[in-house]
Amino acid sequence: KARAFAAADASVREVFGNAPHYLREGGSVPILSDMRRILGMEALMLGVALPDSRLHGPNENLDLRMLDRCSQVSEAVWKAVAAQ
């Protein structure tokens, strides 16, 4: 596993108290290929929505408690990667 991926896995377990659920879904984010080519770095993307968030649809929403917890995950990932 890449360092950031392992850190994200551990951080999700720490903050949410459960193992992350991995899904192979989603669209493309074109800028990521440019960032990889220019910076030589991979991207790590974490979803922050709940199933009823209705992403990209009418009444799209984001639970602020989920946003807060995902901010905690991001902070923990950065700290873990920086410590390695």
Low-confidence stretches: none
Strand residue percentage: under 5%
Distance between the termini: 14 Å
Rg on CA atoms, Å: 14 Å
Task: Tell me, briefly, the overall form.
Answer: globular
User: What would you call the structural class?
Assistant: mainly alpha
Q: Helix-strand pattern, N to C?
A: HHH
Q: Major beta sheet, specifics?
A: none
Helical content class:
40-55%
DSSP summary: helix tally: 3
Query: Count of DSSP E strands?
Result: 0
Q: Look at the structure and give the mean pLDDT.
A: 88
What does this structure look like?
- The protein has 84 residues and is mainly alpha-helical.
- The chain is built from three helices and no strands.
- The protein has helices at residues 3-16, 31-39, 64-83.
- The protein is globular.
- The relative contact order is 0.21.
